[in-house]
C-alpha cells in the first residue's frame, strides 16, 4: 500500500498532469498540494528549490524527492509494480526496452515542438493581460517539426494499436498532456486529425478514465490561468 505520496504543483501543468495520470493508472492514493508558480509571493517549502527549472512539478515519497515527470512515472511503476495497471511499464525486459525507447523519443523529439505549441496556442491567449503575444514564426516552425514527428508515429500506429505494441503503456501516457492542449485548439487539432492512425490513437488514449479524471481536475483548478 502506497503511503505518503505527495505531488506539488497545478493540474494545469503538463508535467503535473503526466504524474497525476500515472498515479491514477497505478490506483495509488496521494496528496496534491496545489502551488501556483505564477504567484511569486507564494512561500514555497524549502525542498522545492530542488524543482526542475520551470518549477512545474515536485514529487515526494517519504524522504525521496523527484522533480522530472517521466522519472516520477518510472519510479511509481518500479516502486509499486503490483498496484493498478501492472503492465504500464511493460511486463518483461523486451517490452520495457521498447517503452523506454518511446519515452526517450517523446522527451527528445515530440516534447520540444509540442511544448512550444502548447505555450503559443493554449497558454498565451490567457496571458495577454501580461503583454505576452503569440509569435507566428515560432508557431509555424514548431508545427513543421511536429508534423514530421507525427508522420513517423502515423506509420508506426498503422501496425500497432499503441506506440509500444498493443497495450497502453507509459509510452502513450507521456504524450497525453501536450497532445491534449494542442488538440483542444482549432489550429493545433488539425495536426492530429489529418493523420488517420494518429487521430485514432489519440482518440483512444484521451478517453481513458484516468486521463479524464486529470482533465476534470484541470477544469476545476485551472491554476496558471487564474
Automatic annotation (TrEMBL):
Q: Give the residue spans that cross the bilayer.
A: none
Ranges of residues in domain GST N-terminal: 3-84
Domain GST C-terminal per the UniProt entry, residue ranges: 92-225
Catalyzed reaction equations: RX + glutathione = an S-substituted glutathione + a halide anion + H(+)
Keywords in UniProt for this one?
Transferase
Q: Pfam families, per this entry?
A: GST_C (PF00043), GST_N (PF02798)
Q: Which domain of life is it from?
A: Eukaryota
Q: Tell me which EC number(s) this protein carries.
A: 2.5.1.18
Cellular component GO terms, alphabetically? cytoplasm
Q: What EC class is this?
A: transferase
Q: Is Transmembrane there in the keyword field?
A: no
Alphabetical list of SUPFAM superfamilies matching this protein: GST C-terminal domain-like (SSF47616), Thioredoxin-like (SSF52833)
The record's annotation in InterPro entries points to: Glutathione-S-Trfase_C-like, Glutathione-S-Trfase_C_sf, Glutathione_S-Trfase, Glutathione_S-Trfase_N, GST_C, GST_Phi_C, Thioredoxin-like_sf
Q: What GO molecular function annotations does the UniProt record carry, in alphabetical order?
A: glutathione binding; glutathione transferase activity
Q: Which family does it belong to?
A: Belongs to the GST superfamily. Phi family.
Q: What is this protein called?
A: glutathione transferase
User: Which organism does this record belong to?
Assistant: Eleusine coracana subsp. coracana
Upper classification of the source organism reads: Eukaryota, Viridiplantae, Streptophyta, Embryophyta, Tracheophyta
Q: Which gene encodes it?
A: ga27153
Amino acid at each position: 500500500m502506497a503511503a505518503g505520496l505527495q505531488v506539488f504543483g497545478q493540474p494545469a501543468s503538463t508535467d503535473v498532469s503526466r504524474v497525476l495520470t500515472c498515479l491514477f493508472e497505478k490506483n495509488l492514493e496521494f496528496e496534491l498540494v496545489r502551488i501556483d508558480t505564477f504567484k511569486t509571493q507564494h512561500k514555497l517549502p524549502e525542498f522545492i528549490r530542488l524543482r526542475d527549472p520551470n518549477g512545474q512539478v515536485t514529487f515526494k515519497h517519504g524522504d525521496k524527492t523527484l522533480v522530472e515527470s517521466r522519472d516520477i512515472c518510472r519510479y511509481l511503476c518500479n516502486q509499486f509494480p503490483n498496484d493498478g495497471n501492472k503492465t504500464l511499464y511493460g511486463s518483461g525486459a523486451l517490452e520495457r526496452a521498447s517503452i523506454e525507447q518511446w519515452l526517450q523519443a517523446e522527451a527528445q523529439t515530440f516534447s520540444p515542438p509540442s511544448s512550444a505549441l502548447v505555450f503559443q496556442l493554449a497558454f498565451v491567449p490567457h496571458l495577454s493581460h501580461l503583454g505576452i503575444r503569440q509569435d507566428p514564426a515560432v508557431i509555424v516552425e514548431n508545427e513543421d517539426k511536429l508534423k514530421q514527428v507525427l508522420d513517423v508515429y502515423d506509420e508506426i500506429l498503422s501496425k500497432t494499436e499503441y506506440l509500444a505494441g498493443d497495450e497502453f503503456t507509459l509510452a502513450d501516457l507521456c504524450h497525453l498532456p501536450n497532445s491534449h492542449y494542442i488538440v483542444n485548439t482549432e489550429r493545433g487539432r488539425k495536426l492530429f486529425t489529418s493523420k488517420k492512425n494518429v487521430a485514432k490513437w489519440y482518440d483512444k488514449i484521451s478517453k481513458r478514465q484516468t486521463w479524464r479524471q486529470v482533465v476534470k481536475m484541470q477544469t476545476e483548478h485551472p491554476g496558471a490561468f487564474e
